[in-house]
Structures are given as structure tokens and as C-alpha cells.
Amino acid sequence: MFKIMRSGLARDHLLVRILSNDISVLLGNGDGNFQDFVSYAVGAQPWFIIAGDFNRDGNADLATSNRDVHSLSVLLGNGDGTFNNPIVVSTSQDINPRIMVSGDFNEDNIPDIALVHDDYSANPQAKCGVLLGNGDGTFATISVINISVTGTSSKAIAITAGDFNNDGHLDLGAGVELTGADMIIILKGIGTGGFTQLTNFGVGSKPFALTNADLDKDNNLDLIVANSWSNRITIHMGKGDGTFSNEIPDGNLFDRQHGVYRTGDLPRWITVADLNNDQKFDLVTADELSSSVSIMIGNGDSTFVVTPRYSVGTPPQAFPMDGSAGDFDKDGDLDLAIANWGSPNDTGVVSVLLGQGDGSFLPKMDFTVGINPINGIARDFNKDGTLDLAVGNSSDSVVSVLLGRGDGSFDPAAAYSIEPNPQSLSYNPDIDVSDFDADGNWDLAVVHFNELYVAILFGNGDGTFRKPVTKITTPHSPLRIIIGDYNNDQNKDFLLQTVDLFGGSDQLYYFQGNGTGGFETPLLINIPGLEIVNTATGDFNDDDIIDLAVVDNENLSIYILFGNGDGSFSYINGVSAHEPINVLPLNLNGDPYTDLVIGSTPGSEVTLCIGNGDGTFIKLDPGYGTENGAYFMIPGDFNADSRIDMAVTGGINGESVVSVLLNTSNMTGIPSDGDPKGNMSETFVLGQNYPNPFNPRTTIPFDLPGREARYVRLSIYNILGQEIKELVNGHLLGGRYRYT
């Protein structure tokens, strides 16, 4: 795919289609959408496409390399997004054109083309070709450059152009595949269209893509190489004389200090751009086998911040789903627990990754749970000061409870069945935790999709739960449960997201809690969406009443509904999103307002939306790429910089990985003033004694130490232990707070 500009601001896209021997042009509307494509026939097996003004009329033209017929097709542009019939340019029978680059190699102000020869003979020999432009869209006879290397066979597979030795003439860099170690060959330009071989250096395996830029702003061009078979890019700093630093041997080495960065599987394409408008070059690769895009944000000094990947579960059967962040080993560093759906041999596992405090994690530890675990919640269920796990298993109607040992490991899981009929089909897609009966113990709520009920497991406070479970009948198949006090009566209610299996639209219901573990008849909440895939809560208009953010995948929107304080909600507006699957309300920038983080699948993207405090949001484009989707997002400060980072799971392409997005923006969030070891505050100090006629207000200031975005609940109780008022019920980053 290649982007060009017409006379205007709309971006257009070009698509090469190899099997149908044509190219497609999609004209942009300027709003992110495109008109229907127009196709232009070219030669057989069009492999690559470039743009340039080959006839010097001010309009963008196109050139394709037609690998199987030894030719290029040049399509002269009309300036309105349309193109003339192709001009065929022969490359001779000795050259199968593949990757191309345009530049003025003979310094006559006419664009020329350099290309690599795709030699698929038994004993290939690396060659490049140069076609000098005539200025009318035609080209002179190709000049062949034979590349001299050691070995019986060699093949040029990538090419880039730039002035690497600062002599004012364009040079070429070619990626060459050898029988031994692959390398980059530098061909020095002499300004007449001719080249001489200057130097070479080793790189990783199969350098299929190659580009250049001045990454560290020292006025010397640097090289960026995508080493496809070793799944990495390498950065080679230019010295200004045509030579480069960091000759890196092949292998599974990923060392950012020496310019080696991990990508997805089989990176085939690479580009340099300023993605976040900070005047620093960033990198993007297209990764063929993992069907992903890897994004590396530049620091301006030739180093980059990459989305880290961590293996979980057992691929290819296990797909990482939801999870929790918490300090499972009590070292003050935030850890992750990930539930892996689709584990092999009918044995589900939860993978625990212990954090190192710098944004990195140790290799996974797996703990056995039920069949197809889909989500997990970390709480101290037995009140011993150590985090435990409750895991919802989607295929056996069992909740697994694992009591933590305080060192990052867990006792064997205890199983709690929520299904009376073992022979019935089972799908339990969500689990949540709260204190429904106000006894001070954590309770669990699990949805049962097939049997149309929500199961409540009341906790005993020692890590065990009462039997039998309490079942709340639902109108349709329940998919997701969201707990909160939606009518401000100090009792726990829940919202239930349901699916109508008989063709109706998805729906959202409100269940009012009575404070003893019972619930009233559900009320339907009117929402405009058709395909509701997720729902989240937050205070989006700063009125201290819980509002809703509802994800509609079919209409590509996030709907905002303001809470009325009585359990009802009013639709306000929507936020457009690309294939949204999840939404997470957070305070990203430390202002008083709630923001949104939107996960997209299969777009594999995380998008940030900054809240204005009135229910509207400012969407920050572009989004941030992840590995294999963004089904679930887990917030936390994983590298101790007081910024909210994000762990993202997906697994849509058979890879069992977790992506960690480290926050490198200026949005610092709420600063942390607490204990660096992350111990929770144990006492509160009332700002003005207690309320009375002479002092009608009481302020509760408190510090929340630690770095994770914790689930915080702050409530006021009377001397009988009854909850009077809930002040906080949601995620807060470590910092200092005041509630009145």
C-alpha cells in the first residue's frame, strides 16, 4: 500500500493486486473514508508500486514492477486521481524487477528508478538495475549493476536511496540474501547515473525491507533494516562517509542499546514517519505472518520505545483474554495475571508475569484452573494481606479461586460450580466482585450465558464461598455484568449486558440491589446501539453520578449515557471508533475529568480520548498498535514513571502474547506521593472532625501509594458497620486525594 496526495488535503491509497494483475486506486474523502476503488490493468505479477512525477507536469504518476514479464508499467496521472493507460518499460530478459526506489541519480532534475533483480534461478546472482528518466514518462535502457559478494549464490531483495557519504550524490543501499550471512551493500553514486560498490556490513536473516532517515539529527543518514526471518529491525548509524555502525550478527538477539528491536512475525515492509507530532522519527513495520503492525516511537536519538510482547498460555491453542494487575509477590512492583482461553487438553491456565518495575516482566508462571478461562479478578478474599485470584471459566460452569502465597505463586485452585445440570451447554463469559450483602466479605457474580441467569457466590471472608449459589434470572442471554450503586441508596446494583439469540438487538438491563444480596425486577435501559460488545462506567460530566460508555461494534461508536442518579440513564452522544471491542474509563492526564481508552479488534489498536468534563471527548489520532487485537486492557504504571500504561491482550492470530504499551506522552496523570514499595494506606485523617450543625462538611484526604491504577472503594460506615455512603468505586492511580 502507498499513500499519495492530490491537490487538496484528502489522503488517497493505492493497492497492488498480484493475482489479478492490476492496481486499485481509492480516493480519500478527507474524513477517513474512501470512494469505491478504480482498477488499472498493468503487467503480470505486479509486485511493487512507487509514485513520482515522471513526466514533470506537476501530477503524481505511478510505476509498478511486473516481476514475471520483465517490465515496469508507468501510469501518468491527470491530477484528479485518475491515470492514463500504462506505458510499458522493458527491463530486458536479464532483470526481473521487484523492489524499486525513485531518485534523480544523474542530476538532471528528472526522476529515475533503481530496482533489485528478483533472481529465482538455481544459482542466483545479486543485481540492481537503474533506469534513467527521459522526462516524458519513458526511460532509457536499463543499466545493470552486478554486486560482488563472497559465496556461490546471492540475491538482492531490498533497496533504498540516499546520500550516505555526504558528497551531494545519491547512493544506493541494497539488502542482499546470501548462502552464508546476509548483508547490506552500499553502492556509491557518482552523479551520472553510475554506481561503484563502496562497502558492506552484516545484518540479520532476510533483510526484505530497507529505508533510511537521520534518526539522531547529526546530518548523517542512518539505515533501518527489517530482518524478516529473525523478526526484528536493526538500526545502523551513519558515519557520513558511507559506512555504518552496529554490524549485528544473526540470532535471537534483541538489544535496544545496540539498535535491535523486536517486531511481529515476518516483517515485510518498513516506513519512517513522525506518528505523534513530536518532531522525532518513528518506525512502522508490516508483519506478514502475525498479520500485525509494529509501531516504535522514536526518542530522537536513534532509540525507540517498542510495544513489549510477553508469551502466555500455550500457543497456538491458547488465546490470552482478560486478567488483572496487582502486586502478587509483594515486592512493590506491579504484576499481571492473564486468563488463557482455549488452553490445550481441556486444562485451562492462568499465566502470572511478575513485574520488574521498569515496564518489563519475567517469563510466565502457569497455574491450572477450569476449562477455557476467560477472565480473572485479583482481591484479598481471605483477608491475609495477600492478593488472591478468582477466575471465570467459560466452558465448565466453574469459578476457580486461587489463594495467593505472597511470592507470586498460588495454592491449587478451589472449584465452585454454578451449573445444576452438568450435561447442559455452558458458557460463562464474565465475572465480577463486590459485597452484595454488606457483611464486609467479597462476593462473586458470574453470568451464565446458556442458562440465562447470574450466579452470586457469597464470600465467607476466609477465601471460601457459600453453597448453593444464588441465581438471578435474566431476560436474555447475559454477556457482561457491571457492578455499582446506580441509584445512590448505598446498596450494590448491577447492569447486565445481554444478547438476543433470536434476532433482536443487544440490550442493557438495570438490577437494583436491596443490600441483603437480593435484587429487584430488572429495568430495560434504552440505548441506540445494535451490537453491544462492552459497557463501562465513569463520571463523564463531573456531577458525581455514574454514567455509562457503551461499545457498539456494528455502528463503530462508543455511546455516552448520563446517569440520572435513580438507576436510569439518558443518551447524550457518541464517539466514533474503528472496530471498537472494549472501552476503559481512566484519568489519563491528571485533570478533573474522566478520559476513555478504546480497544479495537481486528484493528489491533488502542485509541485515547481526552474528556472535556461535559460528556464530550477529544480523540487523539493516530492510535497505538498492539499485537493480535485489543480484546481486554489492563491499566497500571508498569515502569514507575507515574504515567498510566496499558497491558493489552488479544490472541486473534494464534499468538499467545500480551502487549504492554508504555506511556511516553506528557500526560503524567496524578502524581504519586506515596510509599515507593506500594503499600496501601491504612489510616485516614478527617479534615474537619465530624459533621455537626457548626461544621456541616467533613473532608477526607488520603494518599494512595503504589503505581498501579487500583480498583478503589471508599465508603463511610456507621458504628454498627452499616455502609452509609460510598465515595469512590473505580480505578485511581497512586496519588493524593480529597473527598468531601
Summary, kept brief:
By secondary structure, the protein is mainly β. It has no helices and 56 strands.
Give the arrangement of secondary structure elements.
Layout: E1 2-5, E2 11-17, E3 22-26, E4 38-41, E5 46-52, E6 61-66, E7 71-75, E8 87-90, E9 97-103, E10 112-117, E11 127-131, E12 143-146, E13 154-162, E14 171-178, E15 183-189, E16 195-202, E17 207-213, E18 222-227, E19 232-236, E20 260-262, E21 267-273, E22 282-287, E23 292-298, E24 304-306, E25 309-311, E26 319-326, E27 335-341, E28 349-353, E29 365-368, E30 373-379, E31 388-393, E32 398-402, E33 414-417, E34 431-434, E35 443-448, E36 453-457, E37 470-473, E38 477-484, E39 493-499, E40 507-511, E41 523-525, E42 532-538, E43 547-552, E44 557-563, E45 569-576, E46 580-586, E47 595-600, E48 605-611, E49 617-625, E50 632-636, E51 645-649, E52 657-661, E53 700-704, E54 710-717, E55 723-732, E56 735-739
Antiparallel strand pairs: 1-2, 2-3, 3-4, 5-6, 6-7, 7-8, 9-10, 10-11, 11-12, 13-14, 14-15, 15-16, 17-18, 18-19, 19-20, 21-22, 22-23, 23-24, 25-52, 26-27, 27-28, 28-29, 30-31, 31-32, 32-33, 34-35, 35-36, 36-37, 38-39, 39-40, 40-41, 42-43, 43-44, 44-45, 46-47, 47-48, 48-49, 50-51, 51-52, 53-56, ...
